[in-house]
What we know:
This protein is mainly alpha-helical. The chain has helices at 3-13, 15-33, 40-64, 82-101, 111-130, 134-152, 159-190, 195-205, 209-225, 234-241, 244-270, 283-316, 322-342, 353-396, 407-410, 412-426, 432-447, 451-479, 493-511, 514-521, and strands spanning 70-72, 75-78. Residues 270-287 and 346-364 have low confidence and may be disordered.
Amino acid sequence: MNYPEFYSALFRVTLPETALEIAALLVLVVDLGFLRKAALKVRVAVASLLGVAGCGAALWTVSIQNGNGFFVDGWEVLAVQPVNIIAQVGILVLTAITLLLLIDETFTRHVGEFVAIVLMAAAGGLIVSAARDLLVIFVGLELLSLGLYILTAFTKSSGKSAEAALKYYLFGGMSAAFLLFGFSYFYGLSGTTNLSGIQDAITQSGPSPLFYAAWILVVAGLGFKVAAVPFHLWAPDTYEGAPAPAAAFIASVSKVASFALLLSFGLYWLYPGSASGGETHSFAIYLQRTFQTWQKLGSILLAVAAASMVVGNLAALAQTSVRRLLAYSAIAHAGYILLGIASQRPFSGQGSPIDFWRSTWGLPLVTANAVLYYVLTYGLTTIGAFGVVSVVERATGSDRLDSFLGLHKRNPLLAAVLLVLFLSLAGIPPLVGFWAKFNLFAAVLGVSAGPVPFALVALAVALSAVSLYYYLQVLKRAYVMPAIDESHIKAHPVTIIVLVGIAAAVVLFGCFPALLQGWIASFYPTI
Length: 527
């Protein structure tokens, strides 16, 4: 092995993560070494801006990567492929927005540590989105998860924060155990920890009952990360008890990384061409087995997706806390996204070679693009929603529905931002949330035939109408019901600028959906 070339390739692929870690170290040095006696507002502003600069540097390193991944013994371990590049850009942008919204917060004096942990957790998210090996996936997930547990408990004076962090940690440890069990079974069945190698081995020998058991364990572990039913019990308490920036980070960045990982499983285990096709069987048999295997794997995800949509939307109807409402909304949105991932369909082995190649690239263009579009736009909208909730919560001392009474009189600009973001989450045109749902549901119907996909899409559309009701409960208090206190709600100018920018982006991408769709599609070759 040529060690200089080996480590040079590893360093080149991990440049974004390296930039974030250097930024985290710089934040700690500046905050603890030079600004220890400075005013809290100064320390928060400097730490946040340094963190944003680190995200900008990491974005630049993503843009200069030449498309070559990192390989060990011929297997790709860290990829520089369309899915992970798009996800990494999304993670870095959402992290930077979260740090900008931190400027007006006063929940802790340990701002340097908070920003550093956010950057290190984001680095874990970047690893997860690029990983193509089970061991690397687990390391990235744990780096991300440990950071999230700490961020949840950062409000030391709040009992809810401590309780939420403890529940999050306990459920997270359980999910990690499920994930490790599933990974160990995959290794035992295939003799490798690489996703392509697992697909190659399983497709040659045919899936066994243990393979499906391993997949169920992995779905349980990753279902916790995306707050899918029945692995969602941590989400409401965490969203309610965590500091607002931490809750926004969990609801956006963590989801982008986790869904990018699920897409990686799909792209590597669905599509011919990622493995050799085996030596003992013809390529036609290989294709047929791939198709039949995913039909069973996808049915497990479809069941989780349906349960998440139903439980998330119905439970949100009963909430009086806007944070918990957003938590159950996140569970419902996870169900919509899982519906898209589960409905991916590999080439069945029937047809001409050109049909094979069109299927190989055409399906990612339909389903993966729709999923990525949904995840990115949802993450952006959710961060804005938590930003508005944070401002109202600081002014009123509560996140209850009645805290939003008369918001349009107390701060008209903040109320307008809330209106745009909540209507987008509900899927009202011409906002970006409408196009996210439209593209996803159209992709599901386009690649999946039969009554089950049609019924699930119909269920998703009906539940989207249900979601409009609980979003309108908040907006009714902001615009219709009279205010008990009409005193003005103040917010930091940077916070207002960021929130207005998020709302403007939601409107812009809604009126011109091809802007973001075209950027995502530009990463894929056209067949």
